[in-house]
Design a protein that fits this description.
By secondary structure, the protein is an alpha+beta fold. Helix content is about 40%, strand content about 15%. The chain folds into two domains: about 80 residues, Double Stranded RNA Binding Domain; about 100 residues, Cytochrome Bc1 Complex, Chain D, domain 2, CATH 1.10.760.10. The longest helix is centred in the middle third of the chain and has 22 residues. It starts with a helix and ends in a 12-residue tail after the last helix. The structure holds heme C. The site of heme C (HEC) has 18 residues, from helix 6. Heme C binds next to helix 6.
């Protein structure tokens, strides 16, 4: 009996050693995975609104982490409320555990608010028309781009054979920018207005296509669209 007991004991110890030794690698991997999922230093996720002036600091989230849906919605909703204060630089802080929100307006110290609804009470409201001077600057910039587009539209230099856009599209006629995006048989896929501009540069003008971020493309699009201002948008309509 004693021998059997001893044998069982040895078998047990051996098995224990094998399991522990064999799982060493696994432990290392697990530790590494955990290090990736939970960096030692607690971080925050900073989400910026489309105007670049409003930010939400979500505490308890790690930068680059996909936030849980409720958190993401809370952040989005808060950013949208902040957007009401058009010109102001606003940073809101969402602490991990409390429902309180802290808000800093135009660099002033953070103030505590109970919920989003309360925000307008403490903020200098930005719901005012844009100053006239600012509007004039915006219009001048727009007019400049339209004028540049007009020049290009009438300039054979855009192509290589002396032909220019206006020769077939006087006053940008038959360009129908308001119908884009739409399926184009020429390209065999849904095209954006810029795709058709490039198509005509490459074909009747025998020129080189313009990159998406090329200022000349922006100018051409702006000019073409400006000729149809007031038209109802009907994407997909031929
Ligand atoms: C030789 C004549 C010719 C020239 C030059 C020309 N196009 Fe076109 N363009 C056409 C034709 C033909 C079509 C096809 C119309 C259609 O698909 O029904 C067209 C289509 C277009 C469309 C799409 C119109 C629509 O109804 O969706 C745009 C936008 C356009 N051209 C812009 C330009 C631009 C910008 C230039 C100059 C870079 C240019 N075109 C030069 C003949 C020309």
């Amino acid at each position: 009996m004693k021998i059997i007991h001893s044998l069982f004991f040895i078998l047990f110890v051996t098995l224990f050693l094998i399991i522990n030794y064999g799982s060493d690698d696994r432990n290392v991997v697990n530790a590494r995975d955990m290090a990736i999922q939970q960096p030692a230093e607690k971080s925050v996720q900073i989400v910026t609104a489309c105007d670049g002036r409003k930010k939400v600091i979500a505490e308890g989230c790690y930068e680059g982490e996909v936030m849980p849906e409720t958190k993401a919605r809370q952040v989005a909703q808060l950013l949208m409320s902040l957007m009401e204060f058009c010109e102001d630089e606003i940073t809101a802080k969402l602490p991990e555990s409390e429902s309180t929100i802290y808000v800093s307006v135009n660099g002033l110290p953070f103030e505590r608010v109970r919920d989003i609804e309360e925000l307008p009470l403490i903020l200098v409201h930005g719901d005012k028309p844009h100053p006239e001077r600012q509007q004039r600057i915006w219009k001048a910039e727009m007019d400049r781009l339209i004028a540049e587009g007009y020049e290009l539209f009438h300039d054979p230099a855009l192509g290589g054979n002396g032909v220019s856009c206006d020769m077939c599209h006087p006053d940008a006629s038959n360009t129908h920018p308001e119908t884009y995006p739409k399926y184009q048989t020429q390209t065999g896929k849904v095209a954006l207005l810029r795709d058709m501009i490039n198509w005509c540069i490459q074909n009747p003008l025998e020129g080189a296509v313009l990159a998406d971020d090329d200022l000349r493309m922006k100018a051409l699009e702006t000019y073409i669209i400006s000729t149809r201002s007031g038209k109802t948008l009907e994407p997909g309509k031929h």
